[in-house]
Amino acid sequence: MTNAVQIVPDKIHIQSIKILAANLSAGPEVGGGSFNTFDVQYGVSDELFFNEKQFRFVLSTHITALSANEEPTSVTGEYGIEYVFYVENLNDYVIQFDANGNYLLQDVLIHTLLSIAYSTSRGIVLSRTQGTLLNGVILPVIDTRVLMAGLRESKKNVS
Question: Measured between alpha carbons, how far is residue 67 from residues 17, 71, 158 in Å?
């Protein structure tokens, strides 16, 4: 039985957070209505700079306000937020290297970094939509395994 790798929070540092894209739009038919229900789609891309011990994630969200009968409206919001993390003890999370120099990392590290990025994004989007037609939309709580699955699927499609 292998020992579970533990996250050491003091060894994870957020180097930067940048909003790469922010767009709110609405068609003229909307008027000054308010919305209480939203459809939220999200995705993530990543890069690992192993020698620098840095991870870069770009979290993207697309929000559509729904009408009272749950139909999509022309009120939408899109955000792209970049996170750069430095992980001092990155080597502690390496499971294996292959002959080509590729590596496999413990999922616990990726889940932790994605959790930090997504929860921070929730706050950023909430704050930036206050007083707009999206009026403080709160991104749903999600399981980071959904984001991980999206990352893995996008890597399969690139290969």
Answer: 33, 5, 37
d(CA 48, CA 105): 11
CA-closest candidate to residue 125, choices 39, 83, 62, 55:
62
**Chain segment 64-121, per-residue pLDDT in tens:** 999 888 999 999 999 999 999 999 999 999 887 767 767 788 889 999 999 999 999 9
Q: Point out which residues pair with 108 in neighbouring strands.
A: none
Question: Are 74 and 86 contacting, i.e. CB atoms less than 8 angstroms apart?
Answer: no
Phi, psi of 120 (to 5 degrees): -65, -40
Cβ atoms of 18 and 47 within 8 Å: the answer is no
Contacts of 127 (CB under 8 A, 6+ apart): none
What the chain holds in terms of domains, given with CATH numbers, is 9-158 (3.10.420.10)
Q: What predicted TM-score, i.e. pTM, was given to this entire model?
A: 0.88
Q: Give strand ranges (E) for 10-93.
A: 12-25, 37-49, 54-66, 72-87
Q: What are phi and psi of 2, to 5 degrees?
A: -90, 150
